[in-house]
């Protein structure tokens, strides 16, 4: 009977990529994918925020006033150039009469 062994992720990567240069390249690729996914999430969130604001008939200035931030911050949030905290997103949704729903998959 073969016994199974538990190994760490680092050990697994070392076994898959014995050469250090291959491990470094693999981890760089993983980081690129993570960064791309993060940017995609930011763009989607920004688009949803902008769409909701337009649907309820608010200008960027009006939304900014309601959530107590400068209009330029709303512009950056809607363009995906600024990370939006959950607290800020919750305030924005509340100001638009919307609910924020967070799903962990």
Give the key terms:
105 residues, mainly alpha, 434 Repressor (Amino-terminal Domain), 5 helices
Can you tell me about this structure?
- With 105 residues, the chain is mainly alpha-helical.
- Helix content is 68%, strand content 0%.
- The protein starts with 8 loop residues before the first helix and ends in a 10-residue tail after the last helix.
- 9% of the residues are buried.
* Total beta strand runs: 0
Helix proportion: 55-70%
| SS-based class | mainly alpha
Low-confidence stretches: none
With helices defined by DSSP (H or I, 4 residues minimum), what is the helix count? 5
Note the quaternary state here: single chain
What gap, in angstroms, lies between the N and C termini?
36 Å
Mean pLDDT: 91
Q: Tell me the fraction of residues in β-strands, as a range.
A: under 5%
Q: How many separate domains?
A: 1
What's the short story on this structure?
It is built from 5 helices and no strands. The protein has helices at residues 9-16, 20-55, 60-67, 71-79, 86-95. It starts with 8 loop residues before the first helix and ends in a 10-residue tail after the last helix.
């Amino acid at each position: 009977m073969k016994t199974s062994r538990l190994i760490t992720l680092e050990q697994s990567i070392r076994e898959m990529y014995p050469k250090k240069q291959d491990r470094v390249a693999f981890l760089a690729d993983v980081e690129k994918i993570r960064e791309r996914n993060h940017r995609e999430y930011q763009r989607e969130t920004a688009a949803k925020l902008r769409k909701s604001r337009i649907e309820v008939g608010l200008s960027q200035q009006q939304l900014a006033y309601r959530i107590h931030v400068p209009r330029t911050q709303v512009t950056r949030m809607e363009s995906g150039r600024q990370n939006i905290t959950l607290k800020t997103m919750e305030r924005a949704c509340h100001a638009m009469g919307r609910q924020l729903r967070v799903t962990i998959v």
